[in-house]
Write a structure and sequence with these properties.
alpha+beta, six-stranded mixed beta sheet, 17 strands, single chain, Tail-specific_protease, about 425 residues, ClpP/crotonase-like_dom_sf, Pdz3 Domain, 2-enoyl-CoA Hydratase, Chain A, domain 1, serine-type peptidase activity
């Protein structure tokens, strides 16, 4: 019986080997590269990234791509290429266990490179890093047992000295998110003390949140507070927000918290929510669409509007935004600013660029997700250039475990209400 099993295994292995050989023989790196390059140049609206020589990057990665021998090798090289644009909306799949978690969804630590050190600037509220007691201000020493500089170099496939500051900052934050569904090991230095943290996979907080409420709300004395729980892509959020705004209709002011929206969402959820703050059709953002043969610079500027939705909230409101405000969360932030928010408080947002679509890449059997619509505030400034009016860093968690942005918002609104009396 054992002999027969062994023969079957040999035959199965041989058959699989033949299938894989046939599959690899069908792969054409030249055709695959030409398809990827064409899609990026014709349909990606953000090729002109600051401090990035696009043609130089294409030339370098063309050579790397042409040297690949399989679809998997080509996908790995292509992902490395796309990271050079430091755009969390620019992704290539399908993913496997050796790929990084998607940023910023798979992120709970925000870090920056300064004075030749990698410093934690913010911690995502209730994420694994927050629960482990990691604090802003700590210096990152290693990520998954690699010196942090080497961890960043692994993201891009080149030396740190060849990267811009924007790329370095993007790379360290991608690396901190770890690999898909895998635990992370991070060594930090804080107040001359070294400590190693073993953190849960960065997606675990997201999975735990799926069965919870799409929004949470409460009264903070006479101020209403509504927080989105990474739910701007869930149609149930529309009615949940209506319930919240109805319950808080008698408050003197309102805080809308968009700091937990890293996965973005869609306008079908966002627009009805924005509608509670207007009493007539109102513009909330502008956009240009990149199309085949027409660059976004030449495309007609369009305007997106929101219609009134009851109940109408008439009191002053402020918006909280930060490192984990992404995509549609960013769109709602600039939209709320456009339609009447008194102010926006927090840290710079995640900069997920543009309105996105997914394009199938036939030659390499992959897909690419990219921003084909360039998005603008109604004042015609780029969405990615928008920053909170009252800047706070950290915005999610300070060194004492408190919520600095929420505290600042309460202070601001209390002073505003007193001044108006």
């Amino acid at each position: 019986m054992k002999i027969r099993t062994w023969v079957v295994l040999l035959l199965t292995t041989s058959l699989a080997s033949c299938i894989n050989t046939t599959k690899d023989s069908e792969f054409n790196s030249k055709d695959s590269w030409e398809e990827l390059e064409s899609v990026l140049k014709q349909q990606y609206a953000y090729l002109d990234r600051p401090n990035l020589n696009v043609q130089e990057v294409f030339t370098e990665f063309k050579a790397r791509a042409l040297a690949t021998k399989s679809k998997q090798e080509f996908a790995d090289v292509s992902q490395m290429l796309l990271r050079h644009f430091y755009d969390p909306h620019l992704n290539l799949g399908p993913y496997d266990e050796n790929d990084f978690s998607v940023f910023p969804t798979g992120s709970d630590i925000s870090a920056t490179y300064k004075n030749n050190m990698f410093i934690i600037e913010d911690i995502k509220a209730d994420g694994a890093a927050d629960l482990a007691g990691i604090q802003p201000g700590a210096e990152i020493i290693t990520i998954d047992n690699l010196p942090v500089k080497q961890a960043v170099e692994k993201v891009f496939g080149k030396k740190l000295e060849q990267l811009s500051l924007e790329q370095i900052n993007y790379g360290v934050n991608v690396s901190l998110g770890g690999y898909r569904n895998k635990q992370r090991i991070i060594k930090l230095k804080n107040h001359d003390q070294f400590k190693t943290y073993q953190l849960a996979a960065s997606y675990e907080w997201l999975n735990a949140m799926k069965n919870g409420p799409t929004v949470t709300y409460k009264k903070l004395n006479d101020i209403g507070y509504i927080r989105f729980n990474n739910s701007l892509g869930n149609s149930k959020t529309v009615n949940a927000f209506k319930e919240a705004i109805s319950a808080l209709s008698a408050t003197n002011a309102l805080i809308i918290d968009l700091r937990n929206t890293p996965s973005g969402g869609n306008t079908g959820v966002a627009e009805p929510i924005l509608g509670h703050f207007v009493d007539k059709k109102t513009a909330y953002q502008r956009y240009q669409t990149q199309e085949n043969g027409i660059s976004y610079q030449e495309a007609h500027m369009e305007t997106a509007y929101v219609e009134p939705n009851m109940p109408y909230y008439t009191q002053p409101f402020v918006v909280l935004a930060g490192r984990w405000t992404g995509s549609m969360g960013e769109g709602m932030t600039i939209g709320l600013d456009a339609i009447g928010a008194v102010t926006v408080i927090g840290a710079p947002m995640a900069d997920l660029l543009g309105g996105i679509k997914t394009v199938k890449l036939v030659e390499s059997d992959t897909w690419i997700e990219l921003g084909f619509e360039r998005l603008y505030h109604v004042n015609n400034t780029y969405r990615e250039d928008f920053e909170p009016h009252i800047m706070i860093s950290p915005a999610d968690r300070d060194v004492n475990g408190n919520d600095p942005a929420l505290s600042r918002a309460q202070q601001f609104l209390n002073e505003l209400v007193v001044d108006s009396m």
